[in-house]
Design goal:
Order of helices and strands: EEEHEEEEEEEEEE
Number of domains: 2
Helix content: under 10%
Low-confidence stretches: 1-20
Strand order of the largest sheet: 4-6-8-12-13-10
Distance between the termini: 25 Å
Shape: globular
Largest sheet: 6 strands, mixed
Number of helices: 1
């Protein structure tokens, strides 16, 4: 785990570094603080029971689900850019299904890589990565959100 140390400059200077426990400098502390400001707090998405399509995750990388009082599903996100990641946390306690390539608009859909929907009984975490991978003659390249990992 990194610790903040002074590497010879005055406190608060750009010379203050994050150093891991082995003593190796990693990144300037100021860069780390700026990264925290860039990431910001997680986006809370208010979802409904049943189907939730083309979700607007804005520019968030961390998304927390709120709202459902029963089983619900998600089928995609708007705003896909090649390589973008979304870490979705369902802490609602409700069953969540991640639908495989259906319901949302093309380019917003999710590929579970299983050929089937993923069903989670309750609290779970899913990481999605967007890839521009499907060429469509009339539109150009259409992408998909791919499930990179999930737990439990």
């Amino acid at each position: 785990m990194p610790i903040d140390v002074n590497t010879g400059g005055p406190p608060g200077s750009l010379q203050t570094q994050l150093v891991d426990l082995r003593g190796y400098a990693t990144i300037p502390f100021a860069t780390f603080l700026q990264a925290l400001k860039t990431v910001g707090p997680p986006l809370v998405l208010q979802l409904e029971n049943g189907g939730n399509n083309d979700l607007a995750a804005k520019q968030a990388t961390e998304v927390v689900i709120a709202g459902p009082t029963g089983a619900f599903s998600i089928s995609g996100f708007v705003g896909g850019v090649n390589g973008r990641r979304i870490h979705l946390l369902n802490y609602s306690g409700q069953a969540m299904s991640v639908l495989n390539q259906t319901d949302s608009l093309a380019g917003n859909q999710i590929d579970t890589l299983t050929g089937a929907d993923l069903v989670f009984a309750g609290n779970c975490s899913v990481v999605f990565v967007y890839y521009n991978i499907v060429p469509v003659a009339s539109v150009g390249v259409v992408g998909l959100w791919v499930v990179e990992s999930s737990s439990p």
